Amino acid sequence: MAGMLTNLTTVASFAYKLAMSQLMLDHANHIAQELALPGKKPMLLAEVKTFVAHPDLDHDGKPEFRGTITSSNFYFSFYEGQCWSIVRCNVFPSGAPYKFRDPLPHLAELARTPQTVTTNGAYSLATNWLTRFKVNIAETERKYGKPSIYQLQYLSEKDEKLDTGFYYVQWGPGSDGAVKVSLLGTTGELMELNVYDKSLNHQPTLAITNWQELMATSERKLQKQSDGKTVKPSERSPK
Q1: Does the pTM exceed 0.85?
Q2: CA distance 77 to 69
Q3: 41: which of 31, 87, 163, 170 lies 20 to 30 Å off by Cα?
């Protein structure tokens, strides 16, 4: 177990990192089930990469809850106790597990592949995923209006701009907006979901309630306490 968590920061205790990793993983599994994400379910801690960010103290003197869970198929990013971002890792050809693949080198291939998703279909898929992710679409559109929906385009050798079916559905102004979903119009698969406006994110807030105890627990003491048993270091706090 210790070797699996070597990529985590060393400021927090091992016990705290382990508790936070398990809590993020449990919630990532819940999201994967709710959104019917492709890949093995449930994900196990031994099969994922985790990162616990530097636990700066918040205004209450508690460590901030920030980190990621990365499976072979998806990144799940957490900030202030909430999952706010999901990113697909390996959907393109030769995609390596745990590694994001930039779509740009694959645009020519996508432009040659028949699309199965229309603009209306992209909106329907995006709003369905967001609803399952606990984003209220009516609330979002009252605040930001209808989304902009556009595709990445490929410039052919004949200087023709060809649609690739790589859709972006975005609410709010700017390069990323307030909420943004990308998907493949060739397969209807989710590529990325980001909720930048925290007021629209109704995911449960995760918290480690016994963080003081865990921060004071050494790895050796944790090993003695667990002794093959499941440690229950954390729980969700009510929203």
Answers
A1: no
A2: 7
A3: 170
- State CA 146 to chain mean position distance: 24
Question: Do 194 and 110 lie in a common domain?
Answer: yes
Return the closest-CA partner of residue 117 out of 169, 27, 186. 186
Residue 194 has pLDDT above 80, yes or no: yes
**Is 96 domain-assigned?**
no
- Residues 64 and 58 sit within 8 Å (Cβ to Cβ): yes
Instruction: Check residue 78 and give its pLDDT.
Output: 96
User: Does residue 173 sit in the same domain as residue 113?
Assistant: yes
Residue 98 lies in a domain: no
Domain check: are 195 and 210 in the same one? no
Alpha-carbon Rg for the chain, nearest whole angstrom, is 20
For 83, the 3-state DSSP assignment is strand
Q: Compute the distance between CA of residue 24 and CA of residue 229 in angstroms, rounded to an integer.
A: 20
Residue 146 lies in a domain: yes
- At 193, the amino acid letter reads L
Q: What residue numbers bound the domain in which 118 lies? A: 103-200
Other beta carbons within 10 Å of 26: 16
Judged by phi (left if over 0) then psi (alpha if -120 to 50, else beta), residue 189 lies in beta
In this prediction, residue 235 has a pLDDT band, given cuts at 50, 70 and 90, of very low
CATH of the domain at 151: 3.10.450
